[in-house]
UniProtKB/TrEMBL annotation:
<dbReference type="GO" id="GO:0032993">
    <property type="term" value="C:protein-DNA complex"/>
</dbReference>
<dbReference type="Pfam" id="PF00126">
    <property type="entry name" value="HTH_1"/>
</dbReference>
<comment type="similarity">
    <text>Belongs to the LysR transcriptional regulatory family.</text>
</comment>
<protein>
    <recommendedName>
        <fullName>Probable RuBisCO transcriptional regulator</fullName>
    </recommendedName>
</protein>
<dbReference type="InterPro" id="IPR005119">
    <property type="entry name" value="LysR_subst-bd"/>
</dbReference>
<keyword id="KW-0805">Transcription regulation</keyword>
<dbReference type="GO" id="GO:0003700">
    <property type="term" value="F:DNA-binding transcription factor activity"/>
</dbReference>
<keyword id="KW-0238">DNA-binding</keyword>
<dbReference type="InterPro" id="IPR036388">
    <property type="entry name" value="WH-like_DNA-bd_sf"/>
</dbReference>
<dbReference type="GO" id="GO:0003677">
    <property type="term" value="F:DNA binding"/>
</dbReference>
<feature type="domain" description="HTH lysR-type">
    <location>
        <begin position="5"/>
        <end position="62"/>
    </location>
</feature>
<keyword id="KW-0010">Activator</keyword>
<dbReference type="InterPro" id="IPR000847">
    <property type="entry name" value="LysR_HTH_N"/>
</dbReference>
<dbReference type="InterPro" id="IPR036390">
    <property type="entry name" value="WH_DNA-bd_sf"/>
</dbReference>
<dbReference type="Pfam" id="PF03466">
    <property type="entry name" value="LysR_substrate"/>
</dbReference>
<comment type="function">
    <text>Trans-acting transcriptional regulator of RuBisCO genes (rbcL and rbcS) expression.</text>
</comment>
<keyword id="KW-0804">Transcription</keyword>
Length: 311
């Protein structure tokens, strides 16, 4: 019979890939280091490929290891799903959901979603990971996450994307700026203005870049913020103008005395948030139910500029 790695061997491989240390990997898997080492060596021998480079005290993934790591994660996730579907059923959304959320939306949305989930599924375990959208999508594809809430994702034949809400985006200018007396800022007036942005991997980074190109504005790549709070602080001291989504504005701008919010005329200023999972997942019914509860949470936010998607 053709060799098939055991789930335990795949666990050892993933632990080694994540820790790059045999002792830490063994501790993570609750086994002795000799047990893990021998089973991992057996895995490499039967595969006919080295998965780790072993140097002087350091280890790293080989090219084969890099290719096989996402497949190992997907294989274990498929085994987990067999157990979930067989035992948990639909009444508790599978018992565990690993949910990825964009940090430009999650902190202002999850406080509304969590009580609804707790009320409807008190025994549900929810693992929440906040990260940049590009990293969330990688985690979803690799099987490290079950579903994600992310903005403006491109359609993919490998993913199911469901609209959650539409969210307006506004331009923040410091008090005393020449634009402070305008209700709406024509995009042409932004020519030469400095625009602040979040770092690579955020959709808002792409949005600011597109606005800078359309307006002839200066895109400040040397001053990319790591969070919306950092961006707001830089804008408030006059380092540049910045874009902010409506959910963040509703949560944080009531206590911001130094910035004014403006609409921009002549360019689309909104984004769409999606709930996304892998196409063909056996847990699609769980995620559809999660979507219905998430839509309920969006409506309960009652935030100006945040509208639940049509169902």
């Amino acid at each position: 019979m053709r060799f098939r790695p055991s789930p335990r061997q795949l666990d050892y491989f993933i632990a080694l890939a994540e820790t790059l240390h045999f002792g830490k990997a063994a501790e993570k898997c609750n086994v002795s280091q000799p047990t893990l080492s021998s089973q991992f060596r057996l895995l490499e021998e039967n595969l006919g490929a080295g998965l780790l480079e072993r140097g002087s005290g350091d280890i790293s993934l080989t090219a084969a290891g890099e290719r096989l790591l996402p497949l190992a994660r997907q294989a274990l996730e498929s085994l987990d799903e067999i157990v979930v579907v067989a035992h948990a059923g639909r009444e508790n959304l599978g018992g565990l959901i690993r949910l990825g959320v964009s940090p430009t939306f999650g902190p202002y949305f999850m406080p509304y979603l969590l009580p609804i989930l707790k009320r409807n599924f008190p025994d549900l375990e929810l693992y929440i990971r906040e990260d940049r959208p590009n990293l969330l999508e990688e985690g979803l594809a690799a099987g490290a996450l079950d579903c994600i809430i992310t903005p403006d994702i491109a359609p993919s034949g490998q993913l199911t994307e469901r609209e959650l809400c539409h969210e307006s985006v506004s331009l923040a200018v410091p008090r005393g700026h020449p634009f402070s007396g305008l209700e709406v800022v024509p995009v042409s007036l932004l020519k030469g203005e400095k625009l602040l942005s979040l770092g690579h991997g955020f959709r808002l980074h792409n949005d600011v870049q597109a606005l800078a190109r359309a307006a002839g504005a200066e895109f400040l790549q040397d001053y990319e913020g790591t969070s919306l709070d950092a961006l707001r602080q830089m804008a408030s001291i006059g380092m540049g103008l910045a874009l902010f989504p409506a959910a963040y504005i509703a949560s944080e701008f009531p206590k911001e005395p130094n910035l004014l919010l403006k609409k921009v005329e002549g360019i689309a200023m909104h984004r769409v948030m999606y709930l996304v999972w892998r196409d063909g997942s056996s847990r699609a019914a769980h995620y559809e139910k999660l979507l219905s509860l998430a839509l309920e949470a969006v409506k309960s936010m009652q935030a100006e500029g945040v509208e639940a998607a049509d169902t």
